[in-house]
Amino acid sequence: MLYWILLCQTYKAIQRQALPLEIPMMSFKYGGRLRDREIRLVNVIEADQTPLHVQLAVHQLDDVEFEALSYVWGDPSNKLEIMCNGQPFGVTENVHSALLERRRRDLKLLLWVDALCINQSDTDERTHQVRMMRAIYNSAKTVIVWLGQDGPNDSEGTELVERVYRECGGLSFDIESVREGVRVDDFDYIERGFPTPFRHPSTAENPGWKSAFELLKNSWFTRVWVVQELLVAKQSVIWRGRLDLDPNAILFAAMLVDTKRDLWLDFNRYAASSCHAINIARLYFRYRKKGQQPFWDTLCLCRNLQASDLRDKYFALVGISSGLVYELVDYNKTLREVHAQVGCLCLRGLPERGLPCSGLDLLAYGHYRDHTSSTFGAVSWVPGLISADRFAITIAEAYPTAELCKTKRGYAAARYMEDYGFLFDMEQTLAVEQKLAALTSLCRVRRD
Question: Mind telling me which InterPro entries this protein's record contains (predicted)?
Answer without folding.
Answer: HET, HetReg/Transcr_Mod
